[in-house]
Input
Amino acid sequence: MKNVKDIRILLVDDEPHILQFLEFGLVNEGFEIRTALDGMSAINLVREFQPHVVILDVMMPGMDGFEVCRLLKKNGSNIAVIMLTAKDEVEDRVKGLTIGADDYLVKPFSFEELLARIEARLRNQFPGVFREIAIGPFRIDDPRKEIIFGERSLELSPTEYELLKFLVVNHGIVLSKTKILEKVWGYDFGGEENIVEVYIRSLRDKLGDKEHRLIRTLRGAGYRLDWS
Output
């Protein structure tokens, strides 16, 4: 991953061999890393280290990952929390996301997938760490509020820009209308959900996506941006 200097990641897991594996890989990618073997140590390290991202195991003795996440998010912290779980159960995922986790991974997972999730969270929550983001066929220049698709600069309204950026940085992930409204329009938006459909239609027109192969609609679930 490029341009990751000064990006801080805290790894929290009670299994030393997992910490060593992740620390070795992430240090080689250029991240600044700290590790913790338990929840209380993690909370103390956060105050000192001020990480951008916390990779947090769910199943730990004493203070589990859910409680650590709840405490981290308690004061509206912008720390990106990616939870690791050994169980692919809907209840665990729902609980984690409900208390504020930003993403989750089910063990065992590939290091490449973890990198992709970290990158997505950084681009979404800390866009300032990258001046220009290159993802697939898109280049996003956030300071200039410009998105280039292929070799073409798109003419976008401010809301279209924020919506397309949100879709791009979360490519491959299904985003519900509710999630899109919260992130793009804000939690206090009082309009109709159909506004999302209107803007998606406009983006498809500007991207030349007549067959909806780029921005896909998943009925009853939301939208997902893909490219081959």
